[in-house]
Design brief:
The relative contact order is 0.14. This protein starts with 7 loop residues before the first helix and ends with a strand. 2% of the residues lie in helices and 55% in strands. The protein is an all-beta fold and 741 residues long. A hairpin with a 3-residue loop joins strand 20 and strand 21.
Amino acid sequence: MLSTASLAALVGGAAIPGLAQAQTTAAGGELEEVVVTARMRAESLQETPVAVTAITEGQIEKMVVQDLSDFTRAAPNFTIEGVGAIHRNASVAYSRGIGYQGVDQAIDPSVGIAVDGVFFTRNIGALQSTFDIQQVELLRGPQGTLFGKNTTGGVVNITTKQPADHHTFSALGRVGNFGRADVSMAADLPVNDQLSFRISATSQYSDGYMHNLYRAPNGLNPSEEWLAGDNVKALRGAVKWRPTDELTLNLSAAYVKDRSDSVGGVNASFPTDALSRAGRPGFGFPGGPTDPFVAMRNFPSGDYQDTWAGTLNATYEGQGYRIVSISGIVRSSNLSYSDFDVTDLAFFETLATKRHKQLSQEVRIESATDGPLQWVAGGYAGQTDWDTTQIFFLAAVTQEGAEQKDKTAAGFAQFDFSLTEQLTLTAGGRYTWQEKDFTRFLQVPVAQFPRPPLRAAEEWSDFTYHLGANYQISDDAMLYGSYSTGFKSGGFNSRAATASAIGPFDPEKAKAWEVGLKSDWWDRRLRLNLAAFWNKYEDLQVSIFRPAASGTGEEQVVANNADERARGVEVELTVLPVPNLTLTASVGYLDAEYTSFVANLTGRPASATNPCGGTIDRSQKGACYLEPTRVPDWTSRIDATYDIDLAGGGRVSPFVAWSYEDAHFTDTLNAPQGFQKAYHIWDASLTYEAPSGRWQATLWGKNLGDVAHRLSVVPTAGVLTQLYFAEPRTYGVELRMVLGE
């Protein structure tokens, strides 16, 4: 299944950027112009009046990117990490205090992902290979006009490489600790000036960083000794055809085979949880585990996924206008099995299957003149079908399931009008309609599955808009201000244990004010971009597990009445202080809190043993107060690259990066096991480039301080609690080669 459809592996393949393209400065010693498509057209980053961080091809190479989680903290007030629990390839993206960290297909993430214009709304599959990416743009704040629904938090906008007009062959080999072994190759094969092909393949493998010490009573180890490894293979073909001077067609097709482990985790159960009472206390409690990367798991784990995808982008250049058509299809199937209790007991194991199919079509007509009016208008239609079943190996083996058909359509337009040479006004709007037909099969013993299903259907519509103005102070400085709204569709609860918990729940909405500065200084050797924002989120879709309303067991509920206020400041700086030295820095300050959160999150009335039970306002200070999930007050990052030209014509380039994230909770209920203290991470690499420019070798390391920082904690309704950590220190070497014209 695929929210982001293996991302670059699906629409990008496994190419290696040309070494000459990896430089960060122009020949004249100025900062290069970065071109972004944050507003559905190519324009300079410094002329784009929105908060967007562009990570270029050269920066991606220096960061030794493995998957999208390597971009976490790359932008202020923005994180993207693994979800933990089942589906190790699922992403958790948070921007300016809002996001989604579950794996329920029925709940759309608040930060969307678009790849070459195809917009995905599911987070499962997002953390797979990121080879062959030309550029990543991290847009912060609601993007409800051009990118549509489900963007109350922002958008990860990914552009991949297209077939080149000259013959090239590139290859990469990477080895590292924990059994890391990656290989990728790509070739550009032009036929003539009108037609060119590209084929690419990649393989990523590691043993995993979780050491499983479990042994069966007879001394054998029936499950893996190492957990949380990856095993991904992808094949992709792309065609670029220009049958006429006006028409360009880009077609790509890809297959991804993922046979990775489920992500590793440790038992962090409360003393009151059933698992602790069964003799397995949790991490941080007396008698519990003490090493976050050592497990005792008696049940094997795996996260198997097959994905097929195709994209057709067509562009017609008319007289003063441009027509763009973007067609996308994604099909995927997933089999995941996991030792959910993460202990040596046969306590709570599970197996799940998921299937997903997405079809989408967008057509835009855009202005292509230099006049005072720039505009874009278009329509979008899409359909998504998914189904899931899950088996729980408990005292009695049980099964549940759900399926949904989702149809959506939208019309949108945005206009930029230059009143003067300095002042430009912007106005845009989008009308979105969506219908969901949902079916739920409640959890019952396997022999009784399926019982008569529960069915529900609902449709939603909303008008979102953007108003803005920007003023060009000089050729190198621009002020801007905007007001935007965002919309994330309502839905149904696919993990409900009772009919009353199915829903529907209402849409999530955002209102955002933003002012900013884009500026270049010091003969364009210093770039300073600033943004300040004040966002209001209404009817947040907050999912939690609590005891079922009737009978025994637990269920997911979606609390849909939380409101949040998030405000902050963001600073991004790039400077060339001396020749060959590039420094980049970003700092984000975020002040976020619930303004209202009236809900019963425990499923039980208030009592001496359950003081925060019943329907209460969790936004009020006191013992039951909750902070929003993943809202560190401060985030920051500093990178430094120095290119040392050697006498023989080669080059050595050391790179070092420091990133910081303030303290925050990683779950809705603010479980103390999931509280992450403030921490910082060091990454570094040392690259040698041959005089010919045909090959380079890199020594790299990530998380050099071996910091164990928490990804997520999953309390499960008094039964057990799981705790997941990001990767420890990793290091290795890689070799890149580029041949061709």
